[in-house]
TrEMBL record:
Region (Disordered): 525-548
Lineage top rank: taxon: Bacteria
Pfam families (UniProt xref): GGDEF, PAS_3, PAS_4
Limits of the GGDEF domain: 393-526
Annotated ranges, domain PAC: 159-210
One function term, GO molecular function aspect: catalytic activity
Organism: Azoarcus taiwanensis
Protein name: Diguanylate cyclase
Record domain PAS: where: 82-154, 232-273
């Protein structure tokens, strides 16, 4: 391509030399008018060849000098032939080449101008302003300025620029052109223009620019969305770190995707520890030492992952006494339709559990003696009786009330009475066994619930309680004081078939103990309805016997 261009350039340079100056060196206009003289000097042998040259002359727009000899005529013929060859090459050029007078008049333009602009070289030559004819109007001023600069520059300096030519039918094409001053003997003799069609390249450049602009737009858009999603992520991270819940996202390959600060705290990781990408088995090995029952917990995790457990909340107990609730859920489906993983949510509920436990204690315990209160007594009674019905054992209920408690209050004050109550609670609490439950029902009234009881065991317990209370001695304001207890015993289901009646039986027995002189115990009797039923059963037996 470069070789072709330089060859074209050489051809054009030579052609322009001819076009500007005729056949350089020996063909000058001043010789043209002396053809008669030539014929005389060269004789008839040469006149035929001279005639042929004359026929060629119009094609070269130049005059024929008078050859001084046959040798000169040979050289003239060779020069014309060479000029003809060069002209044909110039005519066949794809690019546009043109030669202008220094004042802007067109000397010559290659026929290729027609393909580019629709104007023939003749039409261009006939135009008063061929530049204005060919150049796209918005580029005209710039083009003419560049031509003026080229005219002022030495011939070896080229003015190169790109401009648009306008086809006579309106289409516009980009050309890259070079303007150069042509000189002879150091004097400017014309301006040469070379223009290459660069429309395809320009269109490619435009397309490239459009693509780049589109890329820039989409990059700006993605940066915008990235910035927004970063903002959202930061907001979300701040939120997730601020809440008490520990959050752990595991991806579908069982690797940690996100862990918030509370989750790190709950599971004993450093606050700055990066767990992203760590596999679940590794995490499990790290927390195993914290768990009270690691094997059971990891079995539960496996059940959740296999779908055998629905991920509902469970309690996890840690060795340090903390209680953590855990729940989990599958995280939606990604573009490929597969789940994105699972989110695990942990909450350290130790404090809540302690508060709840404390509230329950407060609701169920007597604040003075720390014994279970009447409310818990009724709950426990129902539970133990239901258990006894299922497993068919007897339940004993011991109710006791202090004898002569009010006088202590009256004589030594309420605080003294309180001390008595606390001391008795401690004393009797030391007497009862682990499976027996001790209650303060209110005032100076207490109860002991004995599951799986028998007569002998109950009477032994009653004895120890009554004797234990009587054995206590107090001293208030330097004065000795003592008191006793009256105790009644009820037995389920022997005396009563429900809790209410059992209490009534034990209560009645206790009052019989008081009536019987206090400081004693009395075994209850079946409640009225129970005795009626038992009596009717007895009568029935007797009737049957009679019938026998
Ligand atoms: N110090 C104190 N006294 C209480 C408390 N609760 C109830 N009492 C008093 O305990 C007394 C109970 O009355 P009673 O059962 O008639 O007293 P008592 O002298 O033992 O009577 P008997 O059972 O007939 O022997 C009342 O004076 C109540 O005011 C308490 O928490 N602290």
């Amino acid at each position: 391509m470069v070789v072709a261009r330089s060859l074209a350039s050489m051809v054009m340079a030579f052609w322009f030399a001819l076009a500007i100056g005729g056949v350089a060196g020996f063909m000058t206009h001043r010789h043209v008018r002396t053809r008669g003289c030539v014929r005389e000097k060269t004789g008839s042998m040469l006149s035929g060849r001279l005639d042929l040259l004359e026929q060629e002359l119009p094609r070269f727009e130049m005059g024929l000098p008078e050859p001084a000899s046959a040798e000169m005529l040979d050289r003239m013929e060779a020069a014309v032939e060479r000029a003809d060859l060069l002209r044909r090459i110039a005519d066949g050029m794809h690019d546009v080449e043109a030669l202008f007078h220094m004042d802007g008049r067109l000397i010559w333009i290659s026929p290729s101008v027609k393909g580019l602009t629709g104007y023939s070289p003749e039409e261009c030559a006939a135009s008063d302003d061929p530049i204005a004819l060919l150049v796209h109007e918005p580029d005209l001023g710039f083009c003419k300025g560049a031509i003026r600069r080229a005219a002022e520059r030495p011939g070896n300096e080229v003015e190169s620029f790109e401009m648009r030519l306008e086809h006579r039918e309106g289409a516009v094409r980009w050309v890259a052109c070079q303007w150069r001053r042509m000189e002879r003997d150091g004097e400017p003799v014309g301006l040469r223009m070379s223009a290459q069609d660069v429309q395809d390249r320009k269109e490619a450049e435009y397309r490239l620019l459009e693509t780049v602009a589109e890329l820039r737009r989409s990059r700006a858009l993605s940066e915008h969305y990235l910035a927004r999603s970063n903002d959202e992520r930061m907001r979300l991270t701040a939120l997730l770190d601020a809440i008490r819940l520990g959050i752990l996202f595991m991806d579908r390959d069982h690797r940690a995707l996100y862990v918030n600060r509370p989750a790190l705290e709950i599971w004993g990781f450093r606050a700055d520890e990066n767990l992203i990408g760590v596999r679940d088995v590794v995490l499990q090995s790290r927390v195993a030492t914290l768990l009270q029952s690691p094997d059971a917990y990891f079995r539960h995790v496996a059940d959740v992952l296999s779908g055998e457990h629905d991920g509902a909340a469970v309690e996890v107990h840690l060795k340090d006494g903390r209680v953590v609730t855990e729940m989990s859920a599958v995280v939606g489906k990604g573009v490929d339709g597969r789940g994105l993983g699972r989110v695990w949510i942990y909450e350290d509920v130790t404090a809540q559990r302690e508060i709840a436990h404390r509230l329950i204690e407060l609701a169920e315990r007597d604040p003075l003696t720390d014994l279970f209160n009447r409310r818990r007594f009724h709950e426990e009674l129902e539970r133990v009786l239901a258990d006894a019905s299922r497993r068919e054992f007897e339940v004993g209920l011991l109710l006791f009330d202090l004898d002569g408690f009010k006088p202590i209050n009256d004589a030594f004050g309420h605080q003294a009475g309180d001390d008595v109550l606390v001391t008795i609670a401690r004393r009797v609490g030391g007497i009862i066994r682990r499976n027996e439950t001790f209650f303060r029902l209110g005032g100076d009234e207490f109860a002991v619930l004995v599951p799986d009881a028998d007569d002998a065991g109950l009477q032994e317990l009653a004895r120890r309680i009554v004797e234990g209370v009587a054995a206590l001695s107090f001293e208030f304001d330097g004065q000795p004081a003592s008191l006793t207890a009256s105790l009644g015993i009820g037995l389920f289901p022997r005396h009563a078939r429900d809790g209410e009646r059992l209490v009534a039986v034990a209560d009645a027995a206790m009052y019989r103990a008081k009536e019987g002189g206090r400081n004693r115990w009395v075994i209850g009797e079946p409640a009225r309805s129970e005795s009626d039923r038992m009596r009717s059963s007895h009568d029935e037996t007797k009737t049957l016997r009679r019938e026998d």
